Amino acid sequence: MSIAPTLQRYLEAESIQYEAIAHEPTMSSTRTAEACRISGNCLAKGVVLRRDGSGYMLAVLPASHHIHLADLRNQFGDNVRMAKEAEVEPLFPDCAHGAVPPIGQCYGLPLVVDDSLEMQPQVYMEAGDHQTLIRINHAQFEHLTAGAPHGRFSEKLPAGSSAWIYSG
After folding, report:
1. If you placed Cys at 33, which of 20, 40, 74, 157 could pair as Cys (CB 3.0 to 4.6 Å)?
2. CB atoms near residue 6 (< 10 Å)
3. CA 48 to centroid of chain Cα atoms
4. What value, to the nearest 5°, has the Cα angle with vertex 57 and ends 55 and 88?
């Protein structure tokens, strides 16, 4: 069980109390929710987006949802597309491939947060590997995402679906 050092330092600097939860290795956020027996609605995942001409940003949404790039573009005015895997790896140098924490500030990435996470009393997130989750309360999640634009740019996946779907 390992929390990415950059993320751990950031949580400590922000005085965030968290619980690290070990789980069997998984390769998707929906599988992680299943393995931990938690709702995908309260597992925040980070999706790295490429902004035309201005670098990258991190969209934060529930694991049970898929992103609608067109809605995100309409709400925030950014011309964004999904970042390629080769673009993501250098942004998170102390994280395992594909284990992107949804807290981008410590990695120099601006955030946009989907409103679907607002109703969750507890929020879980990847810790930077494929076998550790971090659990924080909603007030701490709000603190970590304070100042980030919020909006509705995702839709719940059909029941039983674990496919990675996005529409743009």
Report:
1. 40
2. 18
3. 9
4. 75
Q: Fill in the amino acid letter for 161.
A: S
Question: Which residues, in sequence order, are CB contacts of 77 under 8 Å at separation 6+?
Answer: none
Residue 65 burial (CB < 10 Å; 0-12/13-18/19+)? buried
Is residue 68 within a helix (H) or strand (E), and if so which, with residue range? Answer: strand 65-68
Angle ∠(110,114,119) on CA atoms, nearest 5: 130
d(CA 113, CA 68): 13
Is 0.70 topped by the overall pTM?
Answer: yes
Tokens of 118: 């607002």
Handedness of CA 152, 79, 161, 121 (dihedral sign): negative
Bridge partners (DSSP) listed for residue 8? none
Which tens digit of pLDDT belongs to each residue from 60-87?
A: 999 999 999 999 999 888 789 999 989 9
Q: What is the pLDDT of residues 116-128, one digit of tens each?
A: 999 899 999 999 9
**Exposure string for 103-126, b = 16+ CB within 10 A, e = fewer:** bbbbbebbbbbbebbeebeebbbb
